[in-house]
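Hi support team,

I'm filing this because I wasn't sure whether my run with guanosine-5'-diphosphate finished correctly. The job status page said complete, but I'd like someone to confirm that the output block is well-formed before I use it downstream. Pasting the exact inputs I used:
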Amino acid sequence: MQPNSTAFRLSDFAGAPIVRAETAEYASAERQQSSSAGRGLMRPTMTAAQILVVIPTLNEAKSIGPTIERLRRQGCVDVRVIDNGSSDSSADAASAADAEVIAEPVKGYGMACWRGLQDLPHHSQWILFCDADGCDDIEALPRFIEAANSGADFVLANRLATKAGRKNLTLPQRFGNQLATKLIRLIWAARFHDLGPMRLVHRALLDEIAMQDRGFGWTVEMQIRVAQLGAPYAEIPVAYHARQHGKSKISGTIRGVAMAGSVILSTIAYHAVSRHQRTNSQKSGGDTR
Ligand SMILES: Nc1nc2c(ncn2[C@@H]2O[C@H](COP(=O)(O)OP(=O)(O)O)[C@@H](O)[C@H]2O)c(=O)[nH]1
Ligand SMILES: [Mg+2]
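And here is everything the job wrote out:
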């Protein structure tokens, strides 16, 4: 399948270039809000204090507290922990760290993330997703914010861009992420390099993305939708830490890898087929909605 769009550089900032696909179905957050046209609109400067952090959590009693403390040190105020039916004291540990704790009994990584997006406070215009296991490079947050303030509505961690990141990814994670991102590049012409959990997204973009996945397809679906919409995005080279406590439920187990791998590939296939059908329908003059 040939891409009908090519990613192009929107602007540079001190970190990585901000790019978007030429399809540009998506008007940037300011353009949506102000309904004025054109690039270069003034974007209000955002700080960590304005971000709502969403942390899907399953049995991370020892890691969740330190993760929240690290977020606080970066200036994050609103932290939402979605306790996905933990059998340990994750919820208590998160409460003790002064986070908002929401219980989501239905299991699933995407289910927990989706629950975290319900009933958003009016003032939360930016959402940061990160894991509860302490592996994400929370200290890279200022660079995410810089990219967002420079025009990116989607800022993604790229663990494959640093030695410290690659070192702690398992072989299936490295292989799977490279395969998935190559497929996204081939089909939607967007150059992502990782499917990592740490990502900063504008609320207006999340509304347009309209996430459907409730499981392991959550991260890849979000990136496919960003590519389809032509939303401005940036990738930030980050480290990735080794898990210090608790057990990996996905990349560290054969079952988790097999399930995540098949869900990621089927999510790509589903969106690619839908796109193909839409293109055919447009060619034959049908209803494309
Ligand atoms: N696998 C899994 N992880 C969940 C779920 N709900 C929340 N999580 C959290 O999702 C994050 C990623 O899981 P993790 O075991 O670290 O996967 P890994 O990074 O591939 O080893 C962690 O913060 C988990 O606590 C769920 O239903 N399944
Ligand atoms: Mg993990």
